[in-house]
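Today's session is about reading a structure prediction critically. Students often jump straight to the picture, but the first step is always the sequence itself: look for stretches that repeat, for charged clusters, for runs of hydrophobic residues. Only then move on to the predicted structure, which in these notes is written as discrete structure tokens rather than atom positions. Here is the chain we will use throughout the hour.
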Amino acid sequence: MQQALAGYYIIRIALIAIICRMYKNGMMNLMKDFIFIAGAPGSGKSTIAKALHEKFGTPLFEFGWIPEFQNTGNRTLSYTEEESLSFENLVLVAKNYVKHGYINIIITDLNNEFIFQLPELFKDYDFAIYTLRLEDDNLLKSRVLDESRSSGYRDWEKAVKINNELKNREPLKNETFIDIATQSVEQVVEQICAELDN
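Below is the predicted structure for this chain, in token form.
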């Protein structure tokens, strides 16, 4: 009982610290339960998510991290099964963070299939989806092929196809499209903060 109570107070102190930091930085209106960063490979999802994480000091989850924590014993999963299991786990973990008082939980690196599920899965939560797009396919190609990127993903044709699908569809509930072709990381973060402030 004492350990549970101590854990409760530690979480409350951490939340108070986050709220004080947000108040000090003028970000009190910028609160959501979840902030999803979507886009084609090479669009800058991880970079923007990390910049928001640094600005808000709140939890960040990249979908690609989740399979590292799975233990399926001797059972071998297909790629599709592994992705589905990972997504279900991520949803459960993220909702648990909200249950424990966390805000502005940043989630990125979801594929389009999972992005389409967000409005239904998170209908009882306050969330925003920011989808990064590039109008210039050649710019996206050069970004994907850039060897200095931490991601080993180099399938520029598939990245361009995903980007074009994003450019040719209507926004989902609570989704904002951002053309990042001519914007710096700081400008994109400021645009997201301005959207959150409305």
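Discussion point for the tutorial: The chain has one domain: 29-68+76-197.
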